[in-house]
TrEMBL record:
The lineage of its organism: Bacteria, Pseudomonadati, Myxococcota, Myxococcia, Myxococcales. PANTHER family: BLL4482 PROTEIN, BLL4482 PROTEIN-RELATED. It comes from Anaeromyxobacter oryzae. Keywords: Heme, Iron, Metal-binding, Signal. Residues 28-167 form the Cytochrome c domain. The keyword Methyltransferase does not apply. Residues 1-25 form the signal peptide. This is Cytochrome c domain-containing protein.
Length: 184
C-alpha cells in the first residue's frame, strides 16, 4: 500500500512539473521545438558563425541571437548580372540582394532586443503571414517563409516554446537596409 501511494504521489508531482513547464513555455513542447529548430536550420542563419580550429562553426555563446549588433559591415558588394543574386557576410547573419540588406533576427527571449515580449499568437501570425508581428514589414530573404508557413500550429508552438527556453541574449539587430536606388 505504501509503495502504491508513493508511486501515485510521484506521478502527481511529475504531472504537475510537466504542466508548469508547458505553461511556462507557452504550451508547446520544448524538446520538439529544439528538434525542429535544429532540422529546419534556424541556427544556420540566426546563430552567428565564428572561425574555429577546423573552419567556420556556430558560436554557441550567441545561440539564436541573430546578427551581432557590434559588427558594422561595409556596403554590400555590387550585385553581379545573371543568376547570382545574393552576397552573405562571413557570420551568415547578413544577406544582400535585390531586396537590400537583411539581418537575421534575435530569436532569444530577451525582452528588449529579442522575442521576450512576443506572444505565441504574434509568433504564429508572423510565421504564417511572413510579416513582422503578423502585420508589419515583410520578412526578407533568406527567411524561408513559404516553407515555415506550412508548419502545423503544434510545431510552431513547439518552436516558440523552445525559443522561450534558450538563454536571453541582449543583441539589437539592425533594421533592414533598402536596395540601392539604381537597383529599384
Amino acid at each position: 500500500m505504501k509503495r502504491t501511494k508513493w508511486i501515485l504521489a510521484f506521478v502527481a508531482v511529475a504531472a504537475a512539473v510537466l504542466t508548469v513547464a508547458r505553461v511556462h513555455a507557452g504550451g508547446g513542447d520544448v524538446a520538439r521545438g529544439r528538434y525542429l529548430v535544429t532540422v529546419v536550420g534556424c541556427n544556420d542563419c540566426h546563430t552567428p558563425v565564428r572561425m574555429g580550429p577546423s573552419g567556420p562553426e556556430p558560436d554557441a555563446a550567441r545561440l539564436l541571437s541573430g546578427h551581432p549588433e557590434a559588427l558594422k559591415l561595409p556596403p554590400p558588394p555590387e550585385q553581379p548580372p545573371g543568376p547570382w543574386v545574393a552576397a552573405v557576410a562571413g557570420t551568415m547573419t547578413a544577406w544582400a540582394g535585390p531586396w537590400g540588406v537583411s539581418f537575421t533576427a534575435n530569436l532569444t527571449p530577451d525582452a528588449d532586443t529579442g522575442l521576450g515580449r512576443w506572444t505565441e499568437r504574434e509568433f504564429l501570425d508572423t510565421m504564417r503571414s511572413g510579416r513582422h508581428l503578423g502585420r508589419g514589414r515583410s520578412l526578407l530573404p533568406p527567411m524561408p517563409v513559404q516553407a515555415i508557413g506550412q508548419m502545423t500550429d503544434e510545431d510552431l508552438r513547439a518552436v516558440f516554446a523552445y525559443l522561450r527556453s534558450v538563454p536571453p541574449i541582449r543583441n539589437r539587430v539592425p533594421e533592414p537596409l533598402p536596395p540601392p536606388v539604381a537597383a529599384r
